[in-house]
Design brief:
By secondary structure, the chain is mainly beta. The chain contains no helices and 11 strands. A hairpin with a 6-residue loop joins strand 4 (33-39) and strand 5 (46-51). The protein is globular, with a radius of gyration of 13 Å.
Length: 120
Amino acid sequence: QVQLVESGGGLVQPGGSLRLSCAASGSIFSINDMGWYRQAPGKQRELVAVITSGYRTNYADSVKGRFTISRDNARNTVYLQMNSLKPEDTAIYYCTNGRGGVYSYTPGLWGQGTQVTVSS
């Protein structure tokens, strides 16, 4: 059974950086698209970034120019590099495995989530 395990969350000051990692077990990683969602308290879950099996990417307007999604198929791992972090980036970040490409991404499998807190 495929599982997704996130790591790299934590507390960071505004303007700082974090890199989230998501390690996937199982052989479907390289043929599926991957996405990062986030959910802040009292807010709807938001799709932050998507990377397809062909390495196309797309981002939410709120993170464009600050976040970068990448993947290493040899390691079955997807990353989210987050720079210039703002307090409004505070949320639980979830790694997902799914299909649909950058504009119609639909997650099928979710990780357990990792907390990111941006505060001074």
